[in-house]
Design goal:
423 residues; alpha/beta; 2 domains; five-stranded parallel beta sheet; five-stranded mixed beta sheet; 18 helices; 10 strands; 50% helix; disordered C terminus; binds zinc ion
Length: 423
């Protein structure tokens, strides 16, 4: 357990394996598709030979753990879903699409999430296997992020079109003005059109969205599609920031911007990137936090030495009120030391859950698909995943699977696909 956190690549890369294991014990890590594409991008780094880059990407992929972690759906898909009228919850939790409802042997109702193509790809990367398509994606991505003057032209064009906006002093003013401008009631249809054209959607989706817009009684885009509106606000602020020289025209800013589209799905965001540090305060809500990669690394090392000092297999709870992690638990989980008993119970249950996973693997427990299920009836979420011998074990021990829980599972079914459960 722990508050939800998103790491950008700068933070992710700076953490050692030991720190990563520690992170997953105190936080729930929300993995973003943009992190995966950035990892894949390393595959075609210039001036390095292929075996070197393969090794590097393999190691990075192994740092994405199973315990306390989840890959959230792609932001572009979520924007489209949002515009089509599907509710995208912005409750500091990752979004998983396409889950199937199910009913377990003991009659509880829940949902099963199949492995997504991204998760499947990740297994292959962890084994050091990359398809030709992936190599091409990597090349394409690298080309687009190293393109010089990517924003220079945009800036020139925009300066002619946006001369009506007042000269903007600082980022805070910029952000406030953007909010006002994209909220002007008379301009809503026009703004929606511009935003949708930037998404480069197929004709059918565009028709569906505008049909809904016309049928809907929403006065504003914010009411019509809250998540899409959030992204529109971020994107517009960024573009205006570039125009007014508040941000550089570095092409990687575009990649860094993408992380911000995932902020509604986490409590905490961590980055070491200059651009993020500059813009983040205007993007986060009051119930969210930011921590630099350096501070997070220091904090995790404090936790590690605290654990070593206590030398027990004790519960993973932050004890030192001066650490960021303690403060985050306080702020985002309402944590206080008198809740220790409650946490102890949770930890017990988590231990039981690991046993249940092992049991489920042995029995290959099957769930019946069931279409009619209400959200309030959901008692469990089962996520299918595959684990390779060299990956971190799902129990969070920090050991390789082959040296940990794998030993408790019979040889025959060891490498079969199986499931983890989360309540
Ligand atoms: Zn284990």
């Amino acid at each position: 357990m722990g508050p939800t956190i998103i790491l950008d690549k700068s933070t992710f890369q700076s953490l050692s394996f030991e720190e990563i294991v520690c992170l997953h014990n105190y936080y729930f890590v929300v993995v973003t598709p943009v992190l995966l594409i950035e990892i894949l991008g390393d595959l075609t780094k210039p001036k390095q030979n292929e075996s070197e880059t393969i090794k590097k990407v393999k190691l990075l992929s192994l740092k994405i753990q199973h315990k306390n972690s989840c890959l959230t759906a792609n932001h572009r898909t979520l924007i489209i879903e949002s515009l089509l009228g599907n509710k995208i919850e912005m409750k500091r939790r990752p979004i998983i699409l396409h889950s199937k409802s199910a009913i377990s042997k003991d009659g509880n109702r829940g949902v099963i999430c199949d492995e997504t193509p991204e998760e499947k790809a990740l297994h292959n990367w962890r084994e050091g296997n990359f398809t030709e398509v992936e190599k091409n994606i990597s090349l394409f991505w690298r080309a687009s992020t190293t393109k010089k003057d990517k924003f220079e032209n945009l800036k020139k064009q925009a300066k002619n079109n946006f001369h009506l906006l007042p000269k903007i002093k600082d980022l805070k003013t910029l952000y406030n003005i953007i909010e006002k401008v994209i909220g002007i009631p008379d301009n809503q249809t026009e703004i929606l059109k511009v935003f949708i054209s930037s998404l480069q959607l197929d004709h059918e989706s565009i028709q569906k969205i505008f049909y809904r817009w016309e049928q809907n009684n929403s006065q504003t885009i914010n009411e019509f599609a809250p998540y899409a509106y959030y992204c529109l606000k971020i994107q517009s602020s960024f573009l205006q920031g570039v125009i007014f020289d508040k941000f550089g025209t570095k092409s990687t800013n575009d990649v860094d911007l993408t992380y911000l589209f995932y902020l509604p799905f986490c409590n905490i965001f961590s980055s070491e990137d200059k651009f993020h540090k500059k813009i983040i305060n205007f993007c986060l809500e009051k119930d969210q936090s930011f921590i630099s990669g350096t501070d997070l690394k220091k904090d995790l090392n404090n936790l590690i030495s605290e654990e070593n000092e206590l030398q027990t297999k004790r519960k993973k709870i932050p004890h030192n009120p001066n650490t960021y992690t303690y403060k985050f638990w306080e702020k985002h989980l309402g944590w206080s030391p008198d809740k220790e008993k409650f946490i102890a119970k949770m930890e017990d249950e988590e231990g039981k859950r690991v046993d249940q996973i092992i049991q489920a693997i042995k029995e290959s427990k099957l769930l019946q698909a069931n279409k009619d299920i209400k959200d309030t009836d959901i008692k469990f979420v089962q996520q299918k995943f595959k684990i390779m011998p060299d990956e971190f074990c799902f129990c969070g021990s920090g050991k390789k699977f082959k040296n940990c829980c794998s030993l408790k599972i019979s040889e025959k079914i060891k490498h079969k696909k199986f499931e983890k459960e989360r309540v």
